[in-house]
From TrEMBL:
UniProt record similarity statement: Belongs to the histone deacetylase family.
GO terms for MF: histone deacetylase activity; hydrolase activity
GO biological process terms held by the UniProt record: epigenetic regulation of gene expression
Name of the molecule in the record: Histone deacetylase
InterPro entries per the UniProt record, alphabetical: HDAC_classIV, HDACs, His_deacetylse_dom, His_deacetylse_dom_sf, Ureohydrolase_dom_sf
Keywords recorded for this protein, A-Z: Hydrolase
Amino acid sequence: MLSIAWAPLYAHSLPANHRFPMLKYELLPEQLLREGIVPASAFFQPVPPPAADIRRVHAADYYHRLQAGQLTRQQERATGFPWSPELVLRETTILGGTLACARRAWASGGVALNIAGGTHHAFRDRGEGFCLLNDQAAAAAWLLAWPERPVQRVLIIDLDVHQGNGTAAIFEHEPRVFTFSMHGARNYPHRKERSDLDLPLPDGTDDAAYLGLLRETLPRLLDEHQPDFVFYLAGVDVLATDKLGHLGLSRDGCRQRDAYVLGLCHQQQLPVVVCMGGGYSPRILDIVEAHANTFRVAADLWG
């Protein structure tokens, strides 16, 4: 059975002007339950983790200032969110969800999914682009440090339309974590970091070109890096309908992307954590359906 992290504050703790794209966090669980893709028992409510688990990848001073509401105006503007205690609770809970998913997937050898997460623009000492704390980085660091049965090698597959700049910078000098980002070349962030492998894509890249490049690349990465664990950032801002993405994938192309990535993980018996990442199509239906496809694929493979 799938294990899914979800908390009501994913959607309800943000200012009103940010709530439209965040409706997916409310509608997606409803869709999954309505279709019977997963039972209600698959969901668990995450909680913020101990501060030590966050400070593995974030500077103590930055985390203290974030908690205390002491970010400068410039730092706050870079995150895109006005600071509030509710926002900090939301961000730490999302991170806790991905961390709990990692524990569950590692214990079961299967898959766990966070309805939110994929906050890959958060750096060690700062937040950017609606990301304050880097959930997949923190969970990967926890797995590497777990004294009972540590993971040896992690592969982060970041297929959000934006480069995972914060994740790349955090693990720049960590050979046990391989960061792979396939993203829009001319999209945010304008100053890219260096992942272990970056594949920048031209505007308008369609299903055939996107899936062809992914199929050429991912089996080689799995063979060369030999990961014990995979994090997958399944952003749906790659859709042609996305107002920020500038790529040209159809909803079915996005589903084929998920099926290919998760199919390889299942075939090679790799535990995997999936986070939803971005999605900014004008119609909320396009966003929710594309995200729901990720869960449909996971349920077909591991259900």
